[in-house]
Amino acid sequence: MTVAPSRLCVRALHKRFGPTHALAGVNLDVAAGEVHALVGENGAGKSTLLKALAGVHMADSGSMEIDGLMHMPADPSEAGAAGLAIIHQELALAPDLTIAENLFLGREPRRGLFVDRRALRTQSLTALARVGREHLDPDRLVATLPPADKQLVEIARALTQDVRVLVLDEPTSSLTQADVGPLLKRMRELASTGVAVVYVSHVFEELFAVADRYTVLRDGETVATGAMKDIDHDGLVAAMVGRNVEQLYHRSPCEPGDVALQLRSLAGRSLPVDATLTLRRGEVLGIAGLVGAGRTELLRCIFGLDEVASGEVTALAYDGWRSPRERWEQGIGLLSEDRKHEGLSLDQSLAENLWLPCLSGRANRGVLSGAKLEHDAGEWLRRVGVKFRDAGQAIQELSGGNQQKVALARLLAADCDVLLLDEPTRGVDVGAKAEIYKLIDELAHQHNKAVLVVSSYLPELLGLADRIAVVARGDVLPARPVAELDEHTLLNQMTVGRQAEGIA
How many other β-carbons are positioned within 10 Å of the β-carbon of residue 274? Predict the structure, then answer.
């Protein structure tokens, strides 16, 4: 494509946080009418750059411009007034308000002194249709929505304003593959109207499908930029990590041992409706399914976060429903897909997050040593590749991908025998994904752990799991060896359920 003049122009941007040089000379040019991929490892500077664009952080030096006008917002409202909107990976919706109220919060259509409810509903339906969610009831509370719908409501809210630069930070992290295609199509449609779209993602298939050009950040610097048609997957990875990632997926020979988890006709208060499943030590069992099918609810029932309505659960020889605390004490750990609200305590340090479930066990004669906690935490954080200054650092200072790795490190430090991993690589860069895949493989096949993995990304399940079970409308279909499966077969089961291939 012929590149138009830059709508967004960033030059030699620098930002320090104490001794950490988060941005060390970032350059970025995004034209009106293009989709521009912004990529880099976790900790490369992407989040800091986005916060500078949004007015959350003030750059130490350098310049930013939108349509030739200086862009140095003092806060997000100034950034919005300049025509820039950012959809962050961690959503900023008000859960106790309706979809409509979230879409137009502070900008509600009015009739005199009162909100025009009819107009609000009509405009909300129009906004939802732009992201393929016209079937959602605008009067529904956001708190009741699944993660995928929350993500799309956030995008829809941004599009209700006069946006000239739209930045999307991992916009498909909570979406299934069925939802990704329509979203990418709408991003292209939006760019065709003249909007400059900055697309931040670790999913390369999306980048090559939607982006016109790319910019790569590494260690706070711009290290590469160009047209997507002029680079391939391996070239993009090498630019990001500064090395070749030889093998993405790791799957050692599987030698299943004793049964670690057994479900018999398990039903929750809502989902699942009928889950029969066996997980053995020494294997990785993948769980596939559409958003809303009951994948997350299945893990929540096992871990005790959701009440079991009927059926049986046997976990490590413990029968029946148990509370999350009891499950943790039994050696069962859950990595939640919602790390902001369930997975982490964002107002605490890395060390505090790592040891939070087992602080009492870390005490020496009733006394906790902060220095000891931070030293030991650092060992586990480095093991999973977290980029951090020290273990006493506030976890909210880390990128979303590094936060995810902290949550995973907590399960490793606790030496859990059964690991329930809900979207374990959400928001994680390609280099770190390879490390996490290798770690999961080692835990199952070398250390005899039982690993249950939920993922919306089918190639991930096919590359990582020994067997895969599909959840369709709350029903768990029989697990099959990965050698018998492909994406087409899985998608067929996900959409048709037990009717696929004559499953009774």
Answer: 17
Domains of the chain: 6-241 (3.40.50.300), 259-331+416-502 (3.40.50.300), 344-407 (no CATH)
Read off the tokens for 359.
């602080």
For the residues of 417-454, what is the DSSP string, one character each?
Answer: SEEEEESTTTT--HHHHHHHHHHHHHHHHTT--EEEEE
Copy the structure tokens of residue 110. Answer: 């009015």
| Contact status, residue 95 vs residue 153, Cβ threshold 8 Å | no
Q: Which long-range contacts (CB under 8 A, 24 or more apart) does 192-195 make?
A: 192/33, 193/33, 194/32, 194/33, 194/164, 195/32, 195/33, 195/163, 195/164, 195/165, 195/166
What three-state secondary structure class fits 98? strand
Beta 467-472 vs 475-476: how paired, if at all? antiparallel
The burial of 229, by beta-carbon neighbours within 10 Å (0-12 exposed, 13-18 middle, 19 or more buried), is given as exposed
Q: pLDDT of the chain along its 504 residues, tens only?
A: 455 679 999 999 999 988 778 999 999 999 999 999 999 987 889 989 999 999 999 999 999 999 999 999 999 999 999 999 999 877 889 999 999 999 999 899 999 989 999 999 999 999 998 877 889 999 999 999 987 788 889 888 988 888 999 999 988 877 777 778 888 988 898 899 899 999 999 888 899 999 999 999 998 999 999 999 999 988 998 898 876 655 678 889 999 999 999 999 999 988 899 999 999 999 999 999 987 789 999 999 999 999 999 999 999 989 998 999 999 999 999 999 888 778 888 889 999 899 887 765 555 555 556 688 888 899 999 888 888 889 999 998 888 778 888 999 999 999 999 999 999 988 787 777 888 898 899 999 999 999 999 998 888 999 999 999 999 989 999 999 999 999 889 988 988 887 665 555
pTM (2 d.p.): 0.69
User: Helix 370-383 to helix 400-413 angle, to the nearest 10 degrees?
Assistant: 110
Question: Are the beta carbons of 204 and 196 closer than 8 angstroms?
Answer: no
Contact partners, residue 96, CB within 8 Å, separation at least 6: 141, 142, 143
